[in-house]
Design a protein that fits this description.
This protein is α+β, with helices and mostly antiparallel strands. It is built from four helices and seven strands, in the order H-E-E-E-H-H-E-E-E-E-H. Strands 1, 2, 3, 4, 5, 6 and 7 form a seven-stranded antiparallel β-sheet that branches. A hairpin with a 3-residue loop joins strand 2 and strand 3. It starts with a helix and ends with a helix.
Length: 153
Amino acid sequence: MDRCDQAIQHAVIDTLENMAFVEVTPMEPNSTETVSDQDMTVSLLIHNPIQGELRIKMPHTVVAQITETVYGMPAEELSEQILHDNLGEVINIIAGRFMTELLSEGEMFQLGLPELNPIDIADASIPSRTWRYQIDTAEFSVTVIGNKLLKIT
């Protein structure tokens, strides 16, 4: 497991277990991704000191489960806007933890704003790596885009 693998795994698992009290299980790297029209996707640009992007694709039901725990409200009372806002908060926290672990202690970084439903990556020449996780039986993925982020040693 390289430094990027370790940083993303710690960021994802620690964030979701602490935020929503759910058990997050990493899946095999070569597992095939399940795609649903009910998936919600959010991206966040990393501006400095390294440029890249982080994306999360998560089933609507998992976003609702996490949001229900965070807000202490029944899922049926949660609006789509609240779900979107909370997914944006999830990626902010994961990105912050990821960058904190990747960079030297105390090194500053700058993140962009979360963007819901970003356009898919069309350029296969841009390096990216995807990690898949499971909460209960639902699967979700986290993708890091950008050669410099993936190559930190």
